[in-house]
Amino acid sequence: MTEITANTTFSQQINQILRIPSPLQKLNDKIFDEKSIKVFVKRDDLIHPEISGNKWRKLKYNLLNASHLGYRSILTFGGAYSNHIYATAAAGKYFDFETIGIIRGDELNINSSQTLKFATECGMKLHFVTRNDYRAMRENPQNHPLIQSFIHSKIVPEGGTNESALGGVGEMVDEITEQLGYAPDYIICPVGTGGTISGIIAKSAIKTQVIGICVLKNGHYLQEEVSRLVESNVGYQKHNFEILWDCHHGGYAKKTPQLMNFIEAFYEKYSFEIEYIYSGKMFFAFDELIKSKIMPNSTVVLIHTGGIQGLQLKNE
Ligand SMILES: Cc1ncc(COP(=O)(O)O)c(C=O)c1O
Q1: In terms of Cα–Cα distance, which of 78, 123, 84 is closest to 104?
Q2: Are 281 and 247 in contact (CB under 8 A)?
Q3: How does 25-43 read in b/e, with b if 16+ C-beta sit within 10 Å?
Q4: What are phi and psi of 210, to 5 degrees?
Q5: Which of 47, 280, 302, 43 is nearest to 185 (CA)?
Q6: How many CB atoms lie within 10 A of CB 200?
Q7: Which residues make Cβ contacts (< 8 Å) with residue 228, sequence separation at least 6?
Q8: 92 C-beta closer than 6 A to ligand 1
C-alpha cells in the first residue's frame, strides 16, 4: 500500500474540526494511592461529538488513502445502531466524501433508528440487505453485484477495522507517550472487531502490556485476527498483549444490574459518561484488575473509545 502522510489541507481541516490530541485525564481513587498506581483515561470520546473515539482513529487513514487514490466516495457496512455508520456519515459530511452504507436487515428503513436517520441527514445513501446478503458482501465484497455497482467507492469494512485503521490508532499511542513523557506500563481498551487493540499493540513499546476487554460472548477468533493485523502492520509478531474473554456481561450489548449500577456510580464519582456496550465493560473489568493484576508503582492508561452518542440515540 502507498505510504500516506496527512496532506496539508486534510491536516488543516482535521485541526479545525477535531480535538487532537485528545486530553489525558488523571483518575483518583484511594486504592490507586494505596498501590502507588497512576491511572489515566485517554479521552478520545472528546475528539468530536459526531466522529468520536476510536471511530475517528480508524477512519483517518482510510479517508486519507481514499483521497490519495482519487476516491471521493466511501462505502461501508453496519447495523441499525452502528457507531461506525454514524461516524462515517458524519466524516463524509465534514470532509466532503459521498458515503454509502450497506445496512444489515432488509426489513429496516431510514426511520428504523436515530443512527440511520442521522446518517441519511448527513447525506449517506443507505442500502438495506438481508442478513445472508450482508454476510456474503462483508466477507467478499468484490464478488457481490451490489458492491460491484459502486466501483468508484473505496470500501471500508464493518467497524472500520482494516490495515489502514491501525495507523490512526497508533497516533493515539504516540499522543499518550508524549502527554505522559514516558510509555505507560499498561494500556487497556475494549475489543469489538479488534482494530483498536491491534493499532495499540502495533505502536506500543514492548514494556507496555496491552489488555483488551472483549465485549462479545464468543470472541476467541479475535486472538488470531489481532495477531494477523499486528503482524501485517509491523512485519513481525508482538506478544505484549492479552485479551480477557469473560468480561462481556452476557454478550454484545447485553447488560447486568451490576454493570448499570457501576456505570451510575462511575458517573457520580468522575462526572463523565461511559456506556454499557464498550467503555462501561472496560472500566468494570478494570475495577477487578486493579485488585488482582495491575502491578504496584505502575502507570495505566484506559482508552475511552466514545460511543456515547450511539447510546443516547438508542435511548431516544
Ligand atoms: C465506542 C466503541 N468502542 C470500542 C469499539 C471496539 O473497537 P474495535 O471494533 O476496533 O475492537 C467500538 C467498535 O468499533 C466502538 O464503537
Answers
A1: 78
A2: yes
A3: eebeeeebeebebbbbbbb
A4: -100, 125
A5: 302
A6: 29
A7: none
A8: no
| Residue 157 CB less than 6 A away from ligand 1 | no
Tens-binned pLDDT, residue by residue, of the chain (316 aa): 445 566 667 778 888 899 999 999 999 999 999 999 999 999 999 999 999 899 999 999 999 999 999 999 999 999 999 999 999 999 999 999 999 999 999 999 999 999 999 999 999 999 999 999 999 998 898 889 999 999 999 999 999 999 999 999 999 999 999 999 999 999 999 999 999 999 999 999 999 999 999 999 999 999 999 999 999 999 999 999 999 999 999 999 999 999 999 999 999 999 999 999 999 999 999 999 999 999 999 999 999 999 988 776 665 5
8 A C-beta contact, residue 291 and residue 62: no
Whether 280 lines ligand 1, by a CB cut-off of 6 Å, is no
C-alpha 295 to ligand 1 mean position (Å) = 27
Does ligand 1 come within 6 angstroms of the Cβ of 190? yes
- Which residue do the cell numbers 481513587 mark? 29
Do the beta carbons of residue 82 and residue 115 sit within 8 Å?
yes
Residues 193, 161: contact at Cβ < 8 Å?
A: yes
Q: Which atom of ligand 1 approaches the CA of 306 most closely? A: 1
- Residues with Cβ within 8 Å of 112's Cβ and at least 6 positions away in sequence, in order, are 80, 105
Domains delineated in the chain: 8-48+164-315 (3.40.50.1100), 55-160 (3.40.50.1100)
Whole-model pTM: value is 0.94
Q: 195 CB less than 6 Å from ligand 1?
A: yes
Q: Among 17, 1, 2, 18, which residue's Cα sits nearest to residue 171?
A: 18
